[in-house]
Amino acid sequence: MLEKLMPKSDEFFDDFDAQCAVTVEGAKMLYELLSDYRDVGPRVQALKDAEHRGDEVTHTAFNRLHKQFITPFDRGQIHTLLSRIDDVLDLTNAAAARLHYYEIPSSLPDATELARLLVLSTQKVQEVVAALRLIKKPEQILAGCKEIKRLEAQADEALRSGVGRLFKSGADTLLIIKWKEIYDFIETATDKCQSVANVIEGVVLEHS
């Protein structure tokens, strides 16, 4: 069983938990901004600050990975897991930044829905990553990974529907291009959540 292979040190799991916490925070900040579209500049800056905190956690974890001899599971899997979680927050920040840089005048329901699905995805990632610390019921982790993939499929559909409405809206062409890019960033963040689930599935299936 995987729990028998785990070293006693919780440092990597602490890093994962810290990464996931700030990633959920960032996703919620984006969703709240799109749901209540005001004070865009300061709120985008707050999300950027959260992204910097996430980068610091990731940097610390990578340094630990290079220095620590014993790791809870394969080094490559740890590196990929850290990178994919970091990607989620980076993409969330990128979407928010463009709301500000592109001077988007108001939110759109489809963007808000994509952000809602991203929040749910990051929360489920947080749940399954935390479960790696004391893995006694791998079936629960695998069920969580399946839920992340279901949410990613929903985000795919939300993106397709949203882009369709965007092109039919009759809005200014430049504004459509801007929104399309923002939609893509948010949906790609959910793709990265699925990548996290894929790594976790590999860890569980190899060691359970």
Report a brief summary of the structure:
With 208 residues, the protein is mainly α. It has helices spanning 2-5, 11-35, 40-67, 75-101, 109-131, 138-168, 173-207. The protein starts with a helix and ends with a helix.
Keywords:
208 residues, mainly alpha, 7 helices, 0% strand
Characterization of the model:
Helix 3 packs antiparallel against helix 4, helix 5 runs antiparallel to helix 6 and helix 6 packs antiparallel against helix 7. 83% of the residues lie in helices and 0% in strands. The protein has 208 residues and is mainly alpha-helical. The chain is globular, with a radius of gyration of 18 Å.
> How would a textbook summarize the main sheet?
none
Residue ranges: pLDDT <50 for 5 or more in a row? 1-8
Distance between the termini: 5 Å
Q: Specify the structural class.
A: mainly alpha
> How large, in whole angstroms, is the Cα Rg?
18 Å
Query: Into which percentage range does the β-strand content fall?
Result: under 5%
* Beta strands, count: 0
